Amino acid sequence: MKFGILFRPQDPSGGANLVERWQEILAAARVAEQAGFDGLFVPEHHMMPDGYPPSPWAALGALAAITERVEIGTTIHLLPFEHPIHVAEHGAMVDIISGGRLRLGCGLGNFPSEFELYGIDPASQVSRFEECIEIVQRAWAGEEIDFHGRHFDIKGRVTPRPVGAELWLGAMSEPGVRRAARFGCPWPTDPLHNIDVMRHWAQVYRGAGEEYGTSPKLGVNLLRDGWVADSMADVERTWWPHVRADHWFYFKEVPRWVADREPFLQDVTREEDFKFAQHRIDRLIVGDPDECIASIRAFQEALDPNYLIMTFRMASGPNHQQELECIRRFGTEVIPAFRSQDFPKTK
Asked: Where is the Luciferase-like domain (predicted)?
């Protein structure tokens, strides 16, 4: 199993210190590669006042330039908002510059305001997303494309081709994971749902892979939020207030939580209703190194993921030095437990 980091390059509330924040991201990227992580990832959203990155391409180029070994990618690039030929070309160049290290995780978007920004009807997002996926896959395969769909008319070929890029498809629903399986793509999960939801969706995903004949191409890339410290009390004091605010935002704004598999969420009506003692169970990877290892092994047993992609620092904190300490500690005291072949993978 590989280990990655999803960075959150935001500066609440108004993005006044984004230059400094990005320098901190690049410094953390260097530390993460030295600490033994396998991949570094960035997100995307639009019109966020805290400076949430609206495009991944410059960041991916910067990460490619300052690293040598780690994979670089997105979780998630909002594919419907960009012309698929531009995506194929931008991605190919990042992949070439990085020596074949691009892992482009794509999703279809959540927020109506983002569709409005681009003049796209949200009712068309699925069909547009699927056309984009097909076009990028065909372009990266080197095909001479003659495509005439509902959203795009394309004739030509993309050059140069990538040398090692992978296309991943994010999903937060049964139709979404079935789509990822149908297109034969690895699935980066969300970091929000608990292990029961993840197990169910992974079963649907792998079952669809058998149905579509794409099983050899599939893989679960698990996203989780977490923090390693001396104790669970340290985590709750230092880190939990930041992740609680982040999870509340998604709970409030993105109505995709699976209530029947998340029973305690039925009583949540405000941010303060997220209680650390409950919310961390089978969802977060937190605590001292042994507790983090135990949580990862539970996810490993349930999901057999190819990748575990962690977010440590949220938009509001902890601070940069605390983030670097956490990255180093996770790399030296947690990751080595999974480099051995002694722990059996689930069949």
From this structure: 1-302
5-to-44, 196, 310 alpha-carbon distances in Å: 15, 23, 5
**Topology at the third CATH level for domain 2-240+284-338:** TIM Barrel (3.20.20)
Half-sphere exposure of residue 176, counting CA atoms within 13 Å on the CB side? Answer: 21
Residue 242: which H helix or E strand, with range? helix 240-253
Residue 347 has pLDDT above 80, yes or no: no
Which amino acid would we find at residue 131? E
**Cβ–Cβ under 8 Å, residues 231 and 288:** yes
230: which residues sit within 8 A by CB, 6+ positions away?
Answer: 288
Cis peptide before 216 (omega within 30 of 0): no
Domain assignments of the chain as residue spans, ordered by start: 2-240+284-338
Question: What percent helix, strand, coil does the chain show, rounded to 5?
Answer: 50, 15, 35
Question: CB under 8 Å to 29, separation ≥6 — which residues?
Answer: 7, 40, 63, 66, 67, 70
